[in-house]
Amino acid sequence: VQLQASGGGLVQAGGSLRLSCAASGTIFSIYTAGWYRQAPGKQRELVATISSSGSADYADSVKGRFTISRDDAEKSVYLQMSSLKPEDTAVYFCWSRSKYTTGPGYWGQGTQVTVSS
User: Fold this and answer.
1) Cβ distance 36 to 44 under 8 Å?
2) Minimal CB count within 10 Å: which of 29, 76, 84, 105?
3) pLDDT of 51-69, one tens digit each?
């Protein structure tokens, strides 16, 4: 399974960005998917996940501002980020794992999101 993340960039506080993650080499519809982020000097943290059935969960810090979605036909997962804050600045990683396993799953290469104040 390979994951290719894209869509990061530089945006002013209050702005929006949409991240995309395209999967290959798998039947994506059976995979849970999600986004994590890692800011400089900090541990990687969960941002949002979406199950194979479309159920979404969010970190408290992004609830109401970020929306995760998926398109199984396109084998893709998306993260719509709105009302961005400087503290959202991080490298964002997409992740995915088959719902039939409990292993570590697969990671994309990361995309930088920088929010200026």
Assistant:
1) yes
2) 29
3) 999 999 999 999 999 999 9
DSSP SS3 for 109 = coil
| Inter-residue contact 9 to 17 (CB < 8 Å) | yes
The span from the CA of 84 to the CA of 107, in Å, is 24
Beta-carbon neighbour count of residue 34 at 10 Å? Answer: 23
Using 50, 70 and 90 to split pLDDT, how confident is the model at 26?
Answer: confident
CB 15 within 8 A of CB 29: no
Please say whether the beta carbons of 36 and 45 come within 8 A: yes
- 3-state DSSP: the chain helix, strand, coil percent, rounded to 5? 5, 55, 40
What residues pair up with 65 in beta bridges, in sequence order? Answer: none
**DSSP string for residues in 54-73:** --EEE-TTTTTTEEEEEETT
